[in-house]
Amino acid sequence: MRRQPSPIAASLATVVMSLMCATACSKSKEPAKEPPKEAMKEPAKEPAKEPPKEAAKDQVEVFSWWTGAGEQEGLDAMIADFKAKNPTIDVVNAAVAGGAGTNAKAILANRLQAGNPPDSYQRHAGLELADDIKAGKVEDLTKLYEAQGWKDKLPKGLLEAITIDGKIYSVPVNIHRANLIWFVPKTLKDLGIAGPPKTWKEFLTQAQTIKGKGKTALAIGPAWTQKHLLETVLLGELGPDKYTGLWNGKTDWKAAEVTAALDTFKQVLAASDIKSAAADWQPAADRVIDGAAVYTVMGDWLDGYLKGAKKLKVQADYDVTASPGSAGVYDFLSDSFTLPVGAKHHDAAEKWLIECGSVGGQDLFNPQKGSVPARTDADKAKYQGYLATALKDWQDPATKIVGSLTHGVVASNAFGAEIDTALGIFVESRDAPGFAAAVAKAYAATK
Amino acid sequence: MMRRIRAWGPGLVLILPSLIALAIFVYGFLGWNLRVSVSSWRGLAPAHDFVGLANYTALFDDVRFTRFDVPNIALFTVVFVAGALAVGFALAALLDRGLPGEQAFRSIYLFPMAISFIATAIIWRWLLDNGDGESTTGLNRLFADAGLAWHSDWFKSGSRWAIAAIALPAGWSLSGYVMSLFLAGMRGVPEDLREAARVDGANAPRVFWHVVRPMLLPVLMSAVVILAHISLKTFDLFYAMDQKNIKIDTPALYMWFTTFDGGFYARGAAIAALLLLGVATVIVPYIWYSVRAERR
User: Fold this and answer.
1) β-strands A89-95, A58-64: how paired?
2) For A410, which DSSP code?
3) d(CA A443, CA A406)
4) Burial class of residue B97 (count of CB atoms within 10 Å of its CB; 0-12, 13-18, 19+)
5) When comparing pLDDT for A419 and A40, which is higher?
6) For burial by CB atoms within 10 Å, which of A70, A88, B67, B242 has the most?
7) Closest CB from A7, A24, A292 relative to B33
8) CB pair distance less than 8 Å for B68 and A414
9) Distance CA B129, CA B10 (A)
């Protein structure tokens, strides 16, 4: 018996192999497949086709998650403009599908760790980039900003949000606004409600009336839309300065007013349809359009959905205003492009960033994507409907600019992920002090 | 010496590629995962320090891990394994009677397994909708239309059992497979054994209990092990069903989100190691048992 230990060892080996696949393969292998393939295919093809031009023809690989309706057209328009200005440079569009970069981010992490970065990649502007900076993965672009004079063309609040330790590492292309509440004017009229709530207190009073008439006051979606709601409630209740302080340590999470704001959030959740929350943000908005729910809080990409997919008209079929308590505040998020350390086509990448930061590039991209340009000197005539008012607010010097939590501006990836956990538990337990303590602890641990 | 090489050599050369792949991709990565789990690696830059078991002890203080993930996956595993076994067995027992059209039924029951968990989750997300009144869809709607005053919140229920609702799609997907395992087991029982029992005066239930059942034990064992390890590592079903809903959070999901959203590589590796330990406690005794059984 002792002489044959091999069957056990062999069976153990098979088992361990299948176990390992359970944990490791599924998480890392799949996302890693796509971009290298694409990256390798394109350059290999090019020199083969035009051998004499090989030396002259440069290229730039642009990595993004812009594959959805509107954003893809916007990116294509910007690429076409870039090619017209830089005829010797080929653009390799390495876009990875998946909303808000859910798939793209994991692939990017793999490529950055493997030392095989694209020439320029998309990130939400702000602290979402902090990890990359700390790890030395992206180049300081302050000189490029000075050479292009961008510092005078971008609003101060935006510059503050994208400046990390005195340096700027990314070029913002577009601006979305997160603090918006959406409704159908006719629904309000039928319910006898004069207008959208100015404060969250007023919202809760309206919610009583709405509930009495058998409708839902607020439609909500999956976990990230709950986080989005949390940030708008905190912003509305605490005001822009204290809201910003929550993310940089200047506002104490355990302060009485924060607890009070979290309490309001709890009541807002109770007035929502979180028990049967929609599977995504579009179906949540559908409930408002259908009249089953009265309000939904969502960023201005919803305008693109209602205008495009639903063929509705702003003001007539739906309307939008700043979320309660946040009039005059622009809770922004922005897609920006970077220059990774070790980019294979450094100069071409710099030219791509110049395109991203140019008025021309931004005015081509944004009307398609349904966002406003980061620059304040953009051509107003190109922005219609909701975008016209959004652009007016963005360019108004009196507007207070704060950064979005849910969309990567004010919290690092680590802090944001820990808030996800704490919020998930909070939605279950509804324990506001416990949530505040968990977030304060996470802030200290991930600073 | 030469003779020994001649005897061993060709075989060794034949399995060498897979041995090397096994060594690198299984044991190498396993070791690397364990190494990461005792470091303080966070963010994109790897850290190669040594912090002992700090990541593991932190997990035991982690509310999400201890109060949600572990109880959730335990509950899900029990309900899913028991449910799939019961349904699979019942289907096999019915088919074993030689129904007309058995082939067709067998394929129908087996089909759901051909659908990926992601697609299954998207179908069942609709079937398990918990909206109120008119707005609801799926099973709740079916009950309402059938005049039954029965409404479940399924995986959005406030109860700790919410995750058990996910055993429905999981069971739907795999009970056909369990059925085919049992059916093969039942068909493997020699007819002369049953015949002999019948001659001795045993009725159908007794034949089943004393003759067929003992011979199904190995099938049952493998079914349990296969289902249990699928259950522990299931990721996509929960992921597509309701993302980041902590009611259906499991260690596998926490591992993914904390590693790739938050960059907590060391913590993710520690969760992976514990997950491996969990699966090993199910599988190692089984292997021990089958190896011993084979030797006998």
Assistant:
1) parallel
2) S
3) 15
4) exposed
5) A419
6) B242
7) A24
8) no
9) 59
> Residue with structure tokens 């110049």?
A354
Triad A72, A73, A75: Cα angle to 5°: 65
E strand or H helix at A51: none
Q: What share of chain B is helix, strand, coil (3-state, %, to 5)?
A: 80, 0, 20
End-to-end CA distance of chain A: 58
CATH code, B247:
1.10.3720.10
* Side-chain-side CA neighbours of residue B189 (13 Å): 23
Spatial distance between the Cα atoms of A390 and A158, rounded to a whole number of angstroms: 15
Could you tell me the two tokens for A238? 């605490």
What pLDDT does residue B133 have?
A: 65
The helix or strand, by DSSP H or E, that contains position A220, with its residue range, turns out to be none
Contacts of residue A60, defined as CB under 8 A and 6 or more positions apart, other chains included, come to A89, A90, A91, A92, A119, A120, A345, A348, A349, A351, A352
Q: Is residue B251 part of a domain?
A: yes
Q: Is A20 helix (H, G, I), strand (E, B) or coil?
A: helix
Segment holding B121, helix H or strand E:
helix B117-127
The verdict on residue B4 lying in a domain is no
Residues of chain A positioned with their CB less than 8 A from the CB of B156: 275-277
Are the beta carbons of A134 and B261 separated by less than 8 Å? no
Percentage of residues in chain A having pLDDT higher than 90 = 73
Q: Residues near A148 by Cβ (< 8 Å), separated by ≥ 6?
A: A354, A357
Helix (H, G, I), strand (E, B) or coil at A340: strand
- The pTM score is 0.86
Amino acid at residue number A2: R
Beta-carbon separation of B242 and A113 below 8 A:
no
Q: Which residue has the tokens 């704001």?
A: A261
**Nearest residue of chain B to residue A138 (CA atoms):** B44
Instruction: Give one word for A179, left, alpha or beta, with left for phi > 0 and alpha for psi -120 to 50.
Output: beta
For residues B16-35, average pLDDT: 95
Q: Residue B170: inside a domain, yes or no?
A: yes
What is the span of the domain harbouring residue B240? 43-295
Count structural domains, chain B: 1
Contact B229/A12, CB-based, under 8 Å?
Answer: no
Q: Which of A323, A338, A305 is nearest to A402 (CA)?
A: A323
Query: What residues of B are in contact with residue A109 (Cβ under 8 Å)?
Result: 44, 260, 263
pLDDT over 70, % of chain B: 98
Selection from A228, A176, A179, A181 nearest residue A370 by Cα:
A176
B chain contacts of residue A11, beta-carbon cutoff 8 Å: 287, 290-291
Q: How far apart are CA A14 and CA B147, in angstroms?
A: 52
| pLDDT of amino acid B5 | 81
CB contact under 8 A, B244 and A222: yes
- Residue A296 structure tokens: 């939904």
pLDDT band at A56 (very low <50, low <70, confident <90, very high): low
Q: Is the pLDDT of residue B139 over 50?
A: yes
DSSP assignment letter at A323: P
SS3 letters for B220-260?
Answer: HHHHHHHHHHHHHHCCHHHHHHCCCCHHHCCHHHHHHHHHH
ipTM computed for the complex: 0.88
Which chain B residue has its CA at the smallest distance from A107's CA? B260
Which residues of A fall within a CB distance of 8 Å from B245?
222-223, 424
> Could you tell me what percentage of chain A is helix, strand and coil, using 3-state DSSP and rounding each to the nearest 5?
55, 15, 30
B102, part of any domain: yes
Pair type for strands A58-64 and A120-124: parallel
Q: Identify whether the C-beta of residue A254 lies closer than 8 Å to the C-beta of residue A436.
A: yes
